[in-house]
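User: Could you go from structure to sequence for me? I need the amino acid at each position, not a summary. Structure tokens:
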């Protein structure tokens, strides 16, 4: 009979994400094991190798994105779009966790399976944008454009350290590029 788990799989994955943020792409299974007070052998038995843990992390992020988006208010029109974009952008924080996202993106760029998980997350976000942009003649294309503005503004923010917080920087770019984002447009 297997022993009961003292640390849940979700706790391990969250610890793995925190370890990745702290140590960068060179983190090890031992680093994660130390963070959750389990042995390296226990983690290998439960998850497999480091690559399998990375895949679990990616799957976790897809599911978290799906759940988070499902919990947001539905709607269509410029007000719903503005509220949604403000919610997702402010959810990115002020940049204090950004290095973890860059590290994850670097791993995704090199691994086709991780890249597919990233594409799935992006599709979920773009679908949610498109649902709120039904007023546009091409909501899917519009959603891809909006998502590109967010991603590009994020990288611009990294390159210009004298800027405001990440969310304010991105929202300013969205307001400039998308009239529906202007506060005076309900």
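Assistant: Here is the amino acid at each position, in order:
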């Amino acid at each position: 009979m297997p022993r009961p788990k003292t640390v849940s799989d979700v706790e391990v994955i969250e610890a793995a994400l925190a370890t990745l943020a702290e140590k960068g792409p060179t983190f090890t299974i031992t680093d994660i094991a130390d963070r959750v007070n389990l042995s390296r052998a226990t983690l290998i038995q439960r998850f497999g190798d480091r690559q399998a843990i990375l895949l679990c992390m990616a799957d976790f992020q897809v599911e978290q994105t799906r759940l988070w988006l499902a919990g947001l208010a539905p709607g269509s029109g410029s007000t719903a779009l503005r509220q949604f974009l403000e919610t997702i952008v402010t959810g990115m924080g002020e940049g204090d966790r950004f290095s973890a996202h860059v590290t994850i993106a670097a791993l995704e760029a090199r691994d086709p399976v991780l890249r597919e998980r990233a594409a799935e997350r992006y599709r979920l976000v773009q679908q949610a944008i498109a649902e709120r942009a039904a007023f546009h003649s091409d909501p899917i294309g519009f959603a891809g454009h909006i998502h590109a503005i967010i991603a590009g503004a994020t990288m611009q923010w990294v390159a210009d350290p004298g800027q405001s917080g990440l969310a304010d920087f991105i929202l300013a770019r969205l307001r400039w590029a998308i009239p529906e984002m202007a506060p005076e447009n309900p």
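One structural detail worth keeping in mind: The chain has a mean pLDDT of 86.
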